[in-house]
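Hey, can you fold this one?
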Amino acid sequence: MKYCTGCGAENRDDAVICEKCGKSFDTSVGTQPVSAEAKNNPMGIAGFVLSLVGLVLCWTGYGGFIFFLLGLIFSAIGISHGKRDGQKIGLAIAGLIISLIVFVLSIILLVVLGAIIAEILGSATALALL
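Sure. Predicted structure:
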């Protein structure tokens, strides 16, 4: 006996179509068994969310660095585990990319703030000398 992949009905071994729903048992083409849908990837999701939080907080200066770093770590682990366990890795990849963007933005922000502070202190020192 063989079972229909469409409706699950039991059919004869020599059946060409399902007796219940009419779906074809096309054996001429090398068919592969239908695999289950990929499972969610909790580490990848956590990495994505932490990266987004890091992106928001990098502009405020309150902990954006910690969140982007955690997002980077969780996303990398999510990609690794997702490939190994057959889980979805889309959000883990997005989290990794966002984390790298936050890293670059944080560096630019620190450089700009450092230049502004140096300019303010330089101006204050020049005024003090007058």
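The first strand starts at residue 2 and ends at 3. Let me know if you want another pass with a different chain boundary.
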